Amino acid sequence: MAPNDLILLTGATGFIGFATLLQALSSNYHVRCAVRDPQKASKLRSNPALTSLSQPPNHLTFTHVPDLTTPGAYNDAIKGAKYVIHVASPLPAANPDGYKDADNVFIRPAVRGALEMLEAAHRTPSVQKVVITSSVTALIPSAEWSAQAPATQTYGPESRIEPSSGPFTWNGPAYGASKAAQLQAVERWVESQKPGFEVVTVHPSWVLGRAELADKSQDLWAGTNRFLLDNAVGMSLPKRAGACVLVDDVARTHVLALEKQLQGREKTLVTSVPMRWEDLRGVLDREFPEAVKKGWLSLEGKQETQEIGIDGSETERVMGFKFRGFEELVRELVGQFVELKAREAGSGARV
User: Fold this and answer.
1) Cys bridge to 303: 46, 159, 237, 319, which one at CB 3.0-4.6 A?
2) C-alpha distances in angstroms, 122 versus 9, 118, 228?
3) pLDDT tens, 92-119?
C-alpha cells in the first residue's frame, strides 16, 4: 500500500460501513466517504471510535452524492481513487414496508447503485479494485435462509441463485432478491465489459457486534443486532438460520481484499461462522450475571436454530485470519448493550 492510496467508500453512516471506515483508517488508507446527507459527516468525524484513531485530518474527507442510482452519480466522487468499497444498499430496517414495492425500494436501487459505481470506475483509470458488499442471501434460497424450509446443502463461493421478482409478503425475501439481482447484474457487467480493475463481492451472514454509531442502548436495535438482542432480553422468537459473523471481521475482509491477489471464485468472499441461538443463554449466564440480576438481560429468551451449512473457510484462507466465534461476538455486542444501560442508569435516563 502506498502512503496516499485513496478509497472511495459508500455506506459509512451504516453499521458495516462505519466499521469498514475505522478498519481502513486504522490500516493507514486515505478515505473519501460518499454521503447522501452532508450533515452526517460531522457526526462521523466526532465519533469517539474515530477520533481515538488520532488520524491526520486529511486522511478522511467527504463528498456529497445525493442519489446513488443517478447516472454519473460518482463521476466526481471517484476521481483519484485507487480503490472503491461500495457498502451502501437499501436495508429492511430502514424500509419496514419495502416489500410491498420491492422493485423500487430494494431491487432497482441495489442493482443501479452497484452498476453506477462500476461504470464510474470504468471511466477512472486510477481505480484498481472495487469491493461490493453483498450477502449470503445472494447465494442461498430464501426459503432456506428464512427457515421456511430445511437447508438442502452447504453454500459457499460457488453457490448462486436466480433472483426472485416477487411478490413478497415480508422484507426478508425482498432484501435477498435485491442482493441476488445485484450479484447477477455485477457478474454480467464484468463479463461483458471486462474492466481493467478487479471486482470482489463480500457475502456475510447475520452481521452482529459493536455498533460504534450507537449513542443509546435502544440504538443497537437499528440493524441485524436486534436478532440477538431480542433473545437476550427474554423474547420468544421464530426459528432463525444458525450463522453469523462479527462486524469487525466483515470490515477487515473488505479492507484486506483491496490488496489481495484473488482468482476466480476467490473473488466471492463468504464471511460466516456456524452458531446456535440456543447457546446464547449459557453465554449470558457466564459473562453477564450482574446484568441478568438487574433485569437488563434475561435467560428466558427462546429461539430455535435452523441448521444451515455456509462455508467461509476459503475466505479465511485467502484473507489469512480466522473469523471469531459466537461467544466472542456475544461478548462484544451484549457488552456494549450493558455499557450503555449502565451509563443511562447512572445519568437517570429512562432504561
Assistant:
1) 237
2) 16, 6, 40
3) 877 889 999 999 999 999 999 999 999 9
